[in-house]
Amino acid sequence: MVFKQTDAGVIPEDWEVRTIGESLRFISGKAHEPYVSRSGNFVVVNSKFISTDGTVRKYCTVNLTPAREGDVLMVMSDLPNGRALAKCFLVDESDKYAVNQRVCIFRSKYYDPRYLRYVLNRNPYFMAFDDGVQQTHLLNDPIRKCPIALPSRSEQKAIGDALTDADNLIAAIERLIAKK
Q: Could you give the domains of the chain?
């Protein structure tokens, strides 16, 4: 296999590199705080929700920025050296999640959402904006300029399958260790 050096790193010769702005629909979340309610029908996706893999939840009664199944959501702001900056969440169900401010949606009809989640999650391009001193705010224009490596759709699916299987195996081993 032949490789090439690109803005997205070293990748196979037949892959392409495109920016997020060229490849994905980018949607910013909106403030849902006025609608937070224990009896809300929508899960508010904020940085705490994403950084805890969905275990910490708030609910709201109005959904100003609905996420769809297959969307990749990403945290755009975090404290210096925080664990949430650029962390991603893959939406598993439509009409369930309300995307809050400082979280964005990446939406695509063509690219495999699991592949995108792995490529974008804590991507080094985004992490370079964290200076370790001040709160980091990823701005829309730099986000759109992020280069991503894009293999064929079938390769994206195969990569997504393999990484999902590996994640599931690791989670199962961690549960077994905790049980022992």
A: 3-179 (3.90.220.20)
Residue 63's Cβ-side half-sphere holds a number of Cα atoms within 13 Å equal to 17
**d(Cα 43, Cα 54) in Å, to the nearest integer?**
9
Strands 97-99 and 42-45: parallel
Tens of pLDDT, residue by residue over 149-159, are 999 999 999 99
CB 45 within 8 A of CB 64: no
Burial of 5-36, coded b for 16+ CB within 10 Å and e otherwise, reads: eeebeebeeebebeebeebbeebebeebeebe
Q: What is the pTM of this model?
A: 0.92
| Dihedral, 79, 84, 85, 88 alpha carbons, nearest 10 | -170
